[in-house]
Amino acid sequence: MAFARGVTIERTNPPALHATPGYHHVTKVTADQLIFLAGQCPLKESGDLADGGLEGQTEQVIQNILVALESAGARPADVVRTVIYVASPVREQLSAVWTQLNASPLAPAFTSASTLLGVAQLGFPGQLVEVDVTAAL
Q1: At residue 111, does pLDDT exceed 80?
Q2: Which CATH number is correct for 33-136, 1.10.1240.10, 3.40.190.10, 3.30.1330.40, 3.30.1220.10?
Q3: Which three-class secondary structure state does DSSP give residue 137?
Q4: Contacting residues for 100 by C-beta, under 8 A, at least 6 apart
Q5: 91-102 and 53-71 helices, crossing angle to 10°
Q6: Which segments cross the bilayer (predicted)?
Q7: For residue 16, what are the CA distances in angstroms to 13, 19, 94, 116, 129?
Q8: What three-state secondary structure class fits 104?
Q9: Is the pLDDT of residue 4 over 90?
Q10: What is the rounded average pLDDT for all residues in the chain?
Q11: Which helix (H) or strand (E) holds 136?
């Protein structure tokens, strides 16, 4: 159980459910505020799509989420739900995004309830990744 700024976040894995690669099946939150970020895309401040393929786009999404969280007074540890979209049917590419996210300064966000999806396409031409984030304060 984590206590931060009047927030209670309890992350659990019920024993009757399968083991996870780092996230928790259940995230229970008591909070004064919820922060909902728009799906964060791999767009630079200029509005251009980040270079570097899937890895470069994932890095841009990480940076965008960190900026958005900070603007709301939140940190990665305050995140209570994520949904990760990868425009690929290749499981190894989905795993590579998960690994990169969990090796980044944003890693604490992915210990909460998380979903990782391979999708047919995303909103911008050439976009390969997007992450939806909810935080609690």
Answers
A1: yes
A2: 3.30.1330.40
A3: coil
A4: 55, 58, 59, 62
A5: 40
A6: none
A7: 8, 9, 26, 21, 32
A8: coil
A9: no
A10: 93
A11: strand 129-136
pLDDT in tens, 80-97: 999 999 999 999 999 999
DSSP 52-111: SHHHHHHHHHHHHHHHHHHHTT--GGGEEEEEEEES-S-HHHHHHHHHHHHTSTTGGGGG
Q: Where are the domains of the chain?
A: 33-136
Banded pLDDT at 3 (limits 50, 70, 90): very low
| DSSP structure class, residue 125 | T
pLDDT at 5: 62
The token pair that represents 30 in the structure block: 């008591």
For residue 85, the one-letter residue type is: Y
What is the reported pTM?
0.87
